[in-house]
Amino acid sequence: MVATAAARSDAPLFACEDIRLDLGGRSILHGISLSVRPGEVLGIIGPNGAGKTSLFEVLSGRIKPKSGRVTFKGEDVTRLPLHARARMGVGRTYQTPVVPDELTVGQTFKAARQAYRPYLTRFDAEYGAELVHLHVDHDEPSARLETMNRRKLLLACLLMRRPAILLMDEPAAGLINSEVDEIDHLIRMLSKEMNVAIIIVEHRIELLETIADGVMVMDAGEVIASGSLKDILEDPKVHEAYFESYDEEARA
Ligand SMILES: Nc1ncnc2c1ncn2[C@@H]1O[C@H](COP(=O)(O)OP(=O)(O)OP(=O)(O)O)[C@@H](O)[C@H]1O
């Protein structure tokens, strides 16, 4: 990974254009476009059911869209499956940090190293663990780790592949404040020092305030606003779709 801001390019690293998706006979995404450059952090917010996770499924290659294009480093990857995109440098994290039940931390690292071609080395695994400050006994069963260490373990397994972009689905879910700060710091380090592009779905606006260069707001499968956090917070459409639905939930 390139380490200087000077090396950043203005060309999009990763983009999608006019993504449309149907699931279970329903239209879920109605023409979503976005792009990120190296080192840029794009935050995605929106009420429950807005289509944020579905968009990640399309961007990561788990689900093929009905129409539209996904590009990475200028190449059309729309028809490439998840594992092919992962090998090219697209990393994804999930809302729930699911670790292998039957493996220790050391075995989890080994499995992750061997899932890559050519196999990654122990040094790659140590590099990933150091980046996220994962300090746990490698004989510990992964399933016994606390949420934060599970997240760190999964991130370390991803980062040892040196991804160029990370798609992060609510990386702070289930964490306490000090842990959220640690994730926030890690995201800033990855993006600003290592030039990794990051698209992050996050409900907590305060997390986006410190890390996101731009924010996109989704509602009912559409982008209803995008720009700086300040601009979107002042947008009446955003208030109506996002905050009022949250207020209603809070009152319910
Ligand atoms: N496999 C599926 N089949 C049918 N509908 C689906 C499927 N997966 C998701 N949906 C629907 O797609 C819409 C978008 O869901 P999605 O999970 O992408 O939203 P989200 O913005 O990530 O929501 P949340 O913040 O609650 O995670 C919802 O109405 C959901 O019910």
UniProtKB/TrEMBL annotation:
UniProt entry tagged with the keyword Nucleotide-binding: yes
SMART domains referenced in this protein's UniProt entry, alphabetically: AAA
A Gene Ontology term for the protein's cellular component: plasma membrane
Keywords recorded for this protein, A-Z: ATP-binding, Nucleotide-binding, Transport
Keyword Ligase: no
Cited InterPro entries: AAA+_ATPase (IPR003593), ABC_AA/LPS_Transport (IPR051120), ABC_transporter-like_ATP-bd (IPR003439), P-loop_NTPase (IPR027417)
GO molecular-function term, one example from the UniProt record: ATP hydrolysis activity
Coiled coil: none
Limits of the ABC transporter domain: 14-245
PROSITE patterns per the UniProt record, alphabetical: ABC_TRANSPORTER_2
One of the Pfam families matching this protein, by short name: ABC_tran
SUPFAM superfamilies: P-loop containing nucleoside triphosphate hydrolases
PANTHER family: CONSERVED COMPONENT OF ABC TRANSPORTER FOR NATURAL AMINO ACIDS-RELATED (PTHR45772), HIGH-AFFINITY BRANCHED-CHAIN AMINO ACID TRANSPORT ATP-BINDING PROTEIN (PTHR45772:SF8)
Protein name in UniProt: ABC transporter ATP-binding protein
Taxonomy of the source species: Bacteria, Pseudomonadati, Pseudomonadota, Alphaproteobacteria, Hyphomicrobiales
